Amino acid sequence: DDLDVWFEKSKSLGYDGVSGFVWGQLEPIIKKPDPVARSLNNHGLEFASMDVEVFSDLEVYKDVLDFMEGVNCRILTCLSALRERATQDEEIGWVENIASMAKERGILTCYHPRTMGVTKTFAESTRFFARTDPNLVYACLECGHSTQDFEDLQLKERSTTYVDAFGERIRFVEAKDWNAETELNTPAGEGSS
Predict the structure, then answer these.
(1) E strand or H helix at 19, and its extent?
(2) Which of 11, 82, 113, 168 is the most buried (most CB within 10 A)?
(3) Alpha carbon distance 88, 42 (integer Å)
């Protein structure tokens, strides 16, 4: 029932698709792709992307990928592993393994640097992408996080520098805005992204 409310609201706001975090938000339905696919179809929506955290237990991603196939979702967004749980070397191995599993199913894997992640800054993102296969691991431009987190760049240049550096690998964009007062809850047009 909650899904129908979410899908109905999304469609009424003019959206063509939805996305969500697997753990927490979507965990209760991850093993039930058929009713979700029917509900999406009934509302004229697509599942645009699934967000997952990166960690070492690759078995858990099988259910995620099964669900994605069931709802015809073709973009898996991997959020950088939490700093206290991994090193960048470990994360690179995990992401490439996840991306290999996804690619076998026709699903693109996009990597998303983030505030509490192993890869937060632009320099860390540069190291990550230099060490991963560009035909396997793509980039997600998350405008709010890049503006907030790439403190090693000038504020106004953070997202554009990411696009300049990784544009050929970007396959997914999360259009968020950011300012110091409202952070990642900034309405579009009221920030620096």
Answers:
(1) strand 17-21
(2) 113
(3) 42
Per-residue pLDDT of the chain (193 residues; tens, 9 = 90+): 688 999 999 999 999 999 988 877 677 888 889 999 999 999 999 999 999 999 888 988 999 999 999 999 999 999 999 999 999 999 999 999 999 999 999 999 999 999 999 999 999 999 999 999 999 999 999 998 899 999 999 999 999 999 999 999 999 998 888 888 998 888 888 988 8
> Distance between alpha carbon 20 and the CA centroid of its chain, in Å?
9
- Largest CA-CA distance found in the chain, in angstroms, rounded: 46
Which tokens hold the place of 84?
A: 């206290």
Distance of CA 107 to CAs 45, 122, 183, Å?
18, 26, 31
Q: Is 83 exposed, middle or buried (0-12, 13-18, 19+ CB in 10 A)?
A: middle
Give yes or no for a contact between 77 and 40, defined as CB atoms under 8 angstroms apart.
no
pTM over 0.85: yes
- Beta strand pairing call for 177-179 and 183-186: antiparallel
Determine how β-strand 17-21 pairs with β-strand 177-179: unpaired
